[in-house]
Design goal:
The chain is mainly alpha-helical. The protein has 11 helices and 3 strands, in the order αβααβαααβααααα. A 3-stranded mixed beta sheet has the order 2-1-3. Helix 2 packs parallel to helix 10 (268-292). The radius of gyration is 22 Å and the shape is globular. 33% of the residues are buried.
């Protein structure tokens, strides 16, 4: 009877950072700058890969797909966050919360699969260079990319449906920057055992399995590179993988920190900061890493700039 008398919650209040107004305005300016730099950087990579004939290779095709994923992630999170910072909180309906959660989870999941496919691409390029052009055809790359997006959006959809059917009848305050899985489920007043079980299952499918593929691919890559007799050849082989390794390390470190490592004893402020790393920081640095450490992209940028100056 007590549960029946509880009012069903259909709207939540996102707290964000509870700090003084001056600090919130500073954070607003910082995140707005991060947002525009991220959008411009990733759009630049997508444009260069689409227009520059030298970048019409599997590796750059997958980099452009990664840029699309980064744009989806940061566009799903930062506009809400800016509103929260300006107004010291924000009301969000259950439908809006579930929608934000779905697009965040789908984009992040797709990125996990894309990173594993990119490691496979590097494995084929270094360990089977003579067969690379026949294995990584344009058709094969498109199929792999579509598969990554379908897996990402379909796996999370199952979890989202069950989360949306939970009853929320207690507190309506989410002490977070956006609608994330753990803060939302903690507010449910029904049994969430199945939801937690599904979350761990999807963590294995979306995080553990792709990361295992990446590790196995790079073990074979390292063994193959070590067999190269010249130091110049080894350095050149490793340089083709360095950008991808940096991006993978940053991404999976933050993902494991938020979703895999137990949260017991972690402060709410630390949870918010860690969530910013994979939703804001990683999409920001990915295009910077690929542009600064990649000679072909830097050359394509220079050629595009020269053409604009001529016009």
């Amino acid at each position: 009877m007590h549960e029946l008398n509880l009012t069903k919650v259909t709207e939540f209040f996102l707290l964000g950072f509870q700090v003084n107004q001056g600090f919130r305005i500073s954070l607003f300016c910082i995140f707005l700058a991060f947002y525009w730099v991220t959008i411009c950087g990733n759009l630049l990579i997508i444009t260069l890969v689409s227009t520059s004939r030298k970048l019409h290779t599997p590796m750059y095709f997958f980099i452009s797909q990664l840029s699309i994923s980064d744009i989806l992630v940061i566009s799903d999170i930062v506009p809400y966050m800016l509103h929260i910072l300006l107004n010291n909180g924000r009301n969000i309906t259950l439908i809006e919360c579930i929608t934000q959660l779905y697009f965040l989870g789908s984009s992040e999941s797709s990125e996990c699969f894309l990173l594993s496919i990119m490691s496979y691409d590097r494995y084929v390029a270094i360990c089977n260079p003579l067969r690379y052009s026949t294995i990584m055809t344009s058709r094969h790359c498109v199929i792999l990319s579509i598969t990554c997006w379908l897996f990402g959006f379909s796996f999370i959809f199952i979890y989202i449906i069950h989360t949306a059917n939970l009853n929320f009848c207690g507190s309506d305050i989410i002490d977070h920057l956006f609608c994330d899985f753990i803060p939302l489920v903690e507010l449910a007043c029904t049994d969430v055992f199945i939801i937690h079980l599904e979350m761990y299952l999807f963590s294995i499918l979306i995080v553990i399995i792709p990361s295992t593929i990446i590790v196995i691919s790079y073990v074979h890559i390292v063994l193959a590179v070590l067999k190269i007799p010249s130091s110049t050849g080894r350095q050149k082989a490793f340089s083709t993988c360095s950008s991808h390794l940096i991006v993978v390390s940053l991404y999976y470190w933050t993902m494991f920190s938020v979703y895999i490592i137990p949260t017991k004893g972690r402060s709410l402020t630390m949870s918010k900061i860690l969530s910013l790393l994979y939703t804001v920081f990683t999409p920001l640095v990915n295009p910077i890493i690929y542009s600064l450490r990649n000679r072909d992209i830097r050359k394509a940028v220079q050629e595009t700039r020269d053409k604009l100056m001529i016009w």
